[in-house]
Design a protein that fits this description.
This protein has about 375 residues and is an alpha+beta fold. It has helices at about 25-60, 65-90, 110, 175-205, 210-240, 245-250, 250-255, 280, 290-300, 325-330, 340-350, 365-370, and strands at about 5, 10-15, 100, 115, 120-125, 130-135, 140, 145, 150-155, 160, 165-170, 260-265, 270-275, 355-360. It binds zinc ion. It is found in: Membrane.
């Protein structure tokens, strides 16, 4: 078993969690975004020069349409590149270092400094020890996943986007979705206006190869980005899930992997280790309503959901000297709460006697006397 002692806590060493960032190669990371930029530049040149100027402005009486399309396309392209810039510069976020939880008694003064009281609920192994990330030297919080690209545990990790060359996590997920919305509109306008113009020219036997290329590229881009956006929105609305949750649910080996939860029960004043399925675990983050789930991603002000942020400061990992009284304080904006329905479901299991073991965490002694 991958158990090791850390201060007054015992941790479970999770060694299989880097599998999603296999493309950790600088050349690979740059080549796809470069191809994407080149295609966008070529597509924009062909669209503006060949369609808007040559076909609409010079050869027909649709001068106003030509100008309107150039202005619209220019604005959308600026927004697309600005959002891309935000996604990369802001980054996915970094989970602060979380010391291990006070599980066992230890009289050593030195090691006692590096532990915190166990939170009321956390993910653990079968014996009730929290999951430890050996790369960061930290307990992994709920929804955090270690990314080799950033070299840190990323809060609400979603995926590594090869097209944009960035990991997507809590800090840039909203921008990523906004990017998908604006790039879909960009491709959609290019695709539809070029098809209309091409069909008109086809009757006049006036062919331009660039227009055919735009129809194909913009069409592919439009269907790919709208499909991706649709699936992201669907899973957010359904249960506030991220791509990594979907992968875990769809993969047979991941789905079969049981999740263990350590939970403090106020009624019995005891801590239990309960076994749950991957499906039950993925329901932990559901806010209970469509608006609640969307709000968790886009923020509480509905009017800013589609407006690109003007803040592009990057969050840094908090220092270890901060107040380490509780997990919530350490994680701050990255703290994730489990919904009441899931907690009730786990407590029902405990009442039915369906738990793995009763855990005697030393840090709970304070709680017992409350
Ligand atoms: Zn890590």
């Amino acid at each position: 078993m991958n158990i090791f002692k850390k201060g007054r806590g015992l941790c479970y060493l999770n060694q299989i969690d880097c599998s999603f960032d296999f493309r950790n190669n600088r050349f690979f990371k740059l080549i796809v975004p470069t191809i994407f930029v080149c295609l966008l530049i070529y597509g924009s040149w062909a669209f503006i020069h060949k369609l808007c100027i040559n076909q609409l402005y010079n050869k027909s009486d649709k001068r106003a349409t030509g100008i309107a399309l150039i202005v619209t396309h220019g604005c959308l392209l600026l927004i697309d590149f600005y959002l891309w810039f935000l996604i990369v510069t802001r980054g996915p976020g970094i989970q602060p270092i979380v010391p291990t939880f006070e599980i066992i008694e230890d009289s050593n003064e030195e090691t006692n400094k590096d532990v915190i009281r166990p939170p009321s609920i956390f993910e653990c192994n079968v014996q009730g020890y929290p999951i430890w990330c050996p790369y960061c030297g930290s307990v992994k919080a709920f929804r955090s996943h270690h990314s080799r690209s950033t070299g840190s545990c990323v809060p609400k990790f979603d995926h590594y986007c090869s097209w944009l060359g960035s990991v997507i996590g809590q800090d840039n997920y909203k921008m990523f979705l906004q990017f998908l919305i604006y790039i879909s509109i960009t491709f959609g306008i290019m695709w539809i206006s070029t098809i209309i113009c091409y069909l008109k020219n086809f009757q006049e036997r006036n062919h331009d190869g660039n227009l055919i290329v735009i129809v194909i590229l913009a069409g592919l881009g439009f269907f790919f980005t709208t499909g991706l956006l649709g699936s992201h929105i669907y899973y957010i609305v359904a249960s506030n899930l991220r791509s990594i949750d979907i992968i875990a649910l769809k993969s047979q080996t991941m789905r079969d992997k049981i999740v263990f939860i350590s939970i403090w029960d106020e009624q019995t004043k005891k801590r239990y280790v309960v076994e749950i399925t991957r499906e039950q675990y993925c329901q932990f983050w559901d806010m209970g309503s469509v608006y609640g789930n969307l709000k968790d991603v886009f923020g509480s002000n509905i009017w800013t959901w589609l407006i690109p942020s003007i803040i592009f400061t990057k969050h840094r990992r908090g220092s270890q000297t901060q107040d380490i009284e509780g997990l919530e304080n350490i994680l701050d904006q990255y703290n994730v709460t489990v919904n009441d329905m899931s907690i009730e479901r786990i407590k029902d299991k405990i009442r039915r006697g369906e738990y793995v073991c009763i855990m005697d965490a030393f840090g709970d002694y304070d709680r017992k006397s409350v």
